[in-house]
Amino acid sequence: MGLTCRQCGNTLHDRSKFCPKCGARVTGSGPLVMPVALADRETEVVEHMDVDTEPFAPRDFEAPRGQAIDYERADFGQRLGAFLFDLLLFLIILMSATFLLSSYSEKSIVSSNAMLVAFYCVAILLFGFNFILLAGRTGQTIGKRLVGIRIVKEDHEPAGYVSVILRHCVGYVLSTAGLFLGFVWVVWDPRNQGWHDKIARTIVVLAR
């Protein structure tokens, strides 16, 4: 079997004592020579290896395609805390708007239809920004972001604008009309869903 020089890769004769190309000693010391076939095999392996990949480095786990991750659902206390944060923010902004409108007109807002219209416009804009724009875009109102929970669809896909509009504009009305039973339904429901969740087919999970 022919030999190759480890120093420069030159092919040698079986009886060569020195490499004619680089002058390295190829007999007696052993480590400077290797069979040609083995050298070719080693070169082939090196050429096919990804130099940026460690063969035994652990890889991040990825869930199989099409398999949903079962997120941990938020409980009633977490959802109530988020709702109270949203309600508090809502009241603070409305009270501030009322004070500014009254100061500007120098009279109570209930004494002027224009002032009442302005008040209701502020309330609608605030509701739309928090419960539709933010919730539809990120799945979180300001209160839910503070608590660390998120609205998603039942299949764990992002909720989207259609679902949050159905949930907050229709579902909230029905949950409130039943003496708030639709909100309390979360306590004993097996999927921690309120009536508004069932209408919009959403669940509330811990944000990750």
Short descriptors:
two-stranded antiparallel sheet; 2 domains; 9% strand; three-stranded antiparallel beta sheet; single chain; 208 residues; mainly alpha
**Helix/strand/pairing class, anyone?**
mainly alpha
Count of domain modules: 2
> What radius of gyration results from the CA coordinates?
35 Å
Q: Uncertain spans, ≥5 residues at pLDDT below 50?
A: 29-68
> Roughly what fraction of the amino acids lie in strands?
5-15%
Main beta-sheet strand count, sense and barrel state? 3 strands, antiparallel
Question: Could you say which overall geometry the principal axes of the C-alpha atoms support?
Answer: elongated
- Span between N and C termini? 61 Å
**Number of DSSP strands?**
5
Strand order of the largest sheet: 2-1-3
Count of DSSP-assigned helices: 7
Report helical residue fraction. Answer: 40-55%
pLDDT average, as an integer? 80
Give the topology string: H per helix, E per strand: EEEHHHHEHHHE
Characterise the protein shown here.
The protein is mostly helical and 208 residues long. It has 2 domains: 3-48, no CATH class; 76-206, no CATH class. The chain is 50% helix and 9% strand. The protein has helices at 36-48, 76-105, 113-138, 142-147, 160-177, 181-184, 195-200, and strands at 3-5, 11-12, 33-35, 149-153, 202-206. The strands form 2 sheets. It has a 3-stranded antiparallel sheet. Strands 4-5 form a two-stranded antiparallel ribbon. Helix 2 (76-105) runs antiparallel to helix 3 (113-138) and helix 3 (113-138) packs across helix 5. Residues 29-68 have low confidence and may be disordered.
